[in-house]
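Handover notes (outgoing to incoming on-call)

Open items:
1. Alpha-amylase: sequence verified, structure written out, both below. Nothing else pending on this one.
2. Nothing else urgent.
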Amino acid sequence: MNALHPDHTLDARPVTPQWVTDAVFYQIFPDRFARSGRVRGLNLQEWGDTPHFNRYMGGDLWGVAAKLDYIQSLGVNAIYFCPVFQSASNHRYHTHDYYQVDPMLGGNEALRHLIDEAHARGMRVVLDGVFNHSSRGFFQFNDLLEQGEASAYRDWFHVDGWPLHPYDDAQPANYAAWWGNRALPKFNTDNRAVRAFLWDVAEHWIRFGVDGWRLDVPNEIDDDSFWQEFRRRVKAINPDAYIVGEIWGDAHRWLQGDQFDAVMNYHFTRPCLAFFGAHTLDHPMNERSGTGRVDAMDAASFAQRMTEVTQMYHPDVVRVQLNLLDSHDTARFLTAVGGDHTAFRLATVFQMTYVGTPCIYYGDEVGLPGGPDPDCRRAFPWDEGTWNQETLSLTRKLTAARHATPALQRGDFHVTHAQGEQLVYARRHESGAALIGLNAGRDDAHLPFTGVTPGDYRDVITGRTVHLTGDTPLSVPARGAMVLVPLE
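Alpha-amylase structure tokens:
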């Protein structure tokens, strides 16, 4: 029985995309990743300036396509993009036109080129779907502003009275908006025309070639039938499409096999902050950020919690959960732990060797810091002299090992030692086990690699061969790790 959700049973088997189990994702905030120079005539900030809610850096999809060699060098084989559709905001959650990629990003032509280039490399592309709300510039809402009660689209939204006040905060808005933000009028998804419109958008881009949808605040469309039909239509076009929801809490309702394949796994994020950042957590920073208050954990508490997280949902769902250390909605992990690079590297080791699908937030791999929104959405620093080479090298070693080692992708998770600040666990698979030792302490420590099949293993981090006898304590440096995979 699952202690976290005692009514949960494993009788039903959700069908989730196999390719996601083998994926390493890279999340890109398009305005801040790479500027191609092909989109001209724009009033832009200098690249690398302090991010602003209302200003643009001018990153575009042509720029992303030009950096695919770099992205692929990270061991990444899937990209998740924050919204790319036409919008009057740098984050593009204010959608104007769901059928047009923002001209500032290069338009539909740039997305076509990017998808083709990515697919030629065996890489997948997942888009952000913002279906709970649109924007004041969305045509149908604009019609309400122009025509008032006579608008043909009056019932597309939740109107409480007239006139509407989309910009005057001194007046009641008179329409429902996401968290009261007048810039984001909420769709009336009880309206058949709205439902048909949103489902058609989902189908259109899957036919175009995208490999799935990340769904923004999907719990706020509080209607299982909407998401059941969404899934049916998307999977009818591409059965391998990945549907991942932004659900921060308990997601059982959406993960029964009839709605989403997975969710963004913030149940993974918070314990990683708590254990690896225990010495340096910036509590005020986290309290201002999406993750909220995080209290330090020792190894035993962390091991118990992360074991529970592997048991929260059906195993086929757990294997495709999107495991992230941070995102565009939170402070970057590095900043949340007070700038402690060792904490971030330890967390990255855990992320790349844990059950589920790791997702790197662009720039984390080179040590890019950032506080709560908008600071976490900084421009990618393309000056390699500013990069943290130790973190970058470690990331590449870990992703390569993950791709080469079935146990790291598909093995079961078993903690064998958790005491103080030391953790040892195995990923067991029929092809052989991988063994991971983490020393989050400030002194070197001997960790017990016990109860394993004797033999020779390779330490992914140092490249050295290690012989295990089945009862072998090994020295792991302070704030360091050992990742042992079977010799080929």
